[in-house]
Amino acid sequence: MAHPLIAVVGPTGAGKSSLALWLAARLGGEILNCDSIQVYRHFDIGAAKTPADERAGIPHHLIDVAEPTDTFTAGDYARLAREKASEIAARGRVPVVVGGTGFYLRAMLDGLFEGPPRDSALREELSARNSGVLHRYLRRLDAEAARRIHLNDRNKVVRAIEICRQARRPVTELYRGGSTPLEGFRLCLIGLDPPRADLYALLDERCRRMFEAGLLEEVRGILAKGYPRTAKPFESLGYKHALRILDGGSTFEQALEEMRKETRHYAKRQWTWFKKDARVQWIAAFGDSIAAREAAAALTDAL
């Protein structure tokens, strides 16, 4: 018999963690993180991790499972997430997946073509090129992949070029070839879709609160532990802006405004990603609202 599995998705700041916690408490569930920065240790404030004392005693999984210098891929996430989901179900509890990293969720639910192994020499060659050149190169190799991957997402662009070069075929053609979907679960994907203007106002305020909560001090502490500025999580929203302040590359006001702008753009990209998944059932509210809880209860009661 298939086990229920719930995923709460949507743009950053929409209240996904709040709704997921409420659903987990209501259904006897456990939280399965699906945020690509929350997997890293020490990156707490900018990653908006739910503090341990606010988790209501509900187990959380796949948080703080990697060192900042580790290579942690969507394939790694899919493998670990499937293992944890099965363990949770085996205990008679409900996996509640929550996060806004759509590629991770797709890898977990639909499977992921791993592709050929990484080529360090090729990656070094590609890393010397700027984002625009890389994206144009990918467009020549695989126009469909170039349309799907934003030119500023260097990691995905480089990986797509790497696969095309090694396999001598477009990466999109290979992806269509073979991936194994998650089996043994009945899925309920819930998307939070609050009013955009309200979300953007909330995100502007949240960016400021992250600095007030000690984001700069957190970054100083991470660097003091010996982790390099080149560690992948430092590329994420908030952390790269904090680094610019600490390095004297921008003032606090400049970094805050840039962080707000990029966070709004990121939320828009998340909306676009999840809107393409026909399985997602949308709730036009923030996750901490009574309306969202009532709608989510109705959706999950049908599982």
Your description of this structure?
It is globular, with a radius of gyration of 20 Å. α9 packs across α12 and α10 packs across α11. The model has no long low-confidence stretch (mean pLDDT 94). It has a 6-stranded parallel β-sheet with strand order 3-2-4-1-5-6, sandwiched between helices. It is 50% helix and 10% strand. It has 2 domains: 233 residues, 3-Layer(aba) Sandwich (Rossmann fold); 56 residues, Orthogonal Bundle (Histone, subunit A), CATH 1.10.20.
Radius of gyration: 20 Å
Structural class: alpha/beta
Relevant CATH superfamily of the largest domain? P-loop containing nucleotide triphosphate hydrolases
The portion of residues assigned to helices is: 40-55%
Number of helices in the DSSP assignment: 13
Mean pLDDT: 94
CATH topology name of the largest domain? Rossmann fold
CATH architecture of the largest domain: 3-Layer(aba) Sandwich
Q: Show unreliable segments.
A: none
Shape: globular
Order of helices and strands: EHEEHEHHHHHHEHHHHEH
Count of the separate structural domains: 2
Summary keywords:
303 residues; alpha/beta; six-stranded parallel β-sheet; globular
